[in-house]
Design a protein that fits this description.
Elements lengths: L7 H19 L8 E3 L2 E3 L2 H11 L13 H24 L6 H21 L12 H21 L9 H9 L1
Antiparallel strand pairs: 1-2
Length: about 170
């Protein structure tokens, strides 16, 4: 096909190609999310979420007001999210000899998550409203549900963690 310089399809293709090169130069891994705010490259999804919270304070905030009781709950919940990720991946990749301990660690972490959801009344980690904490847990929880059911035959959903089940329904 031949395009004339004023052909809108050709312009769209050229613009898309230029955009693709621009974006791939910005995120060299092709896998990492990023935001370019005032010339700053951000490649970590958690940092991106915080940056968006700061950039758009007039929107529905996903973090509680600083100094509030709910804000005090955020750091321990973020540590729990990291513990959960480690427990999930630890069991998923555990060699046969170590699998029992890895599974027990994962199940204990799920129980702590279930307790954390109950502590603030749920269905979300900070209570009745969706928060940044839920968004951070979401990717690991969703992936753990699928991978553990497939590779280990373990059901997170419907597996006896009532608050986690409520969280999934609310999400």
């Amino acid at each position: 096909l031949a395009f004339s310089p004023d052909d809108s399809l050709a312009q769209t293709i050229i613009a898309s190609t230029v955009d693709a090169f621009f974006w791939t130069d910005m995120a060299l891994s092709f896998l990492t999310a990023y935001v370019d705010e005032d010339g700053k490259l951000i490649t970590d999804s958690v940092t991106i979420m915080y940056a968006l919270e700061e950039a758009f304070p007039e929107n529905n905030p996903l973090l509680p007001a600083p100094g509030s009781e709910a804000a005090e709950a955020v750091p321990p919940l973020l540590r729990l999210e990291q513990q959960f990720a480690g427990a999930w991946l630890g069991w998923l990749r555990a060699p046969g000899v170590m699998e029992g301990g890895a599974r027990a660690n994962f199940e204990a972490t799920l129980a702590r998550m279930d307790e954390a959801l109950a502590a603030r009344g749920g269905p979300f980690f900070l209570g009745a409203e969706l928060s940044l904490v839920d968004l951070l847990f979401c990717s690991f929880l969703e992936r753990s549900v699928a991978s553990l059911l497939y590779f280990k035959g373990f059901a997170v959903r419907g597996g006896g963690y009532a608050r986690i089940d409520e969280w999934f329904e609310a999400m």
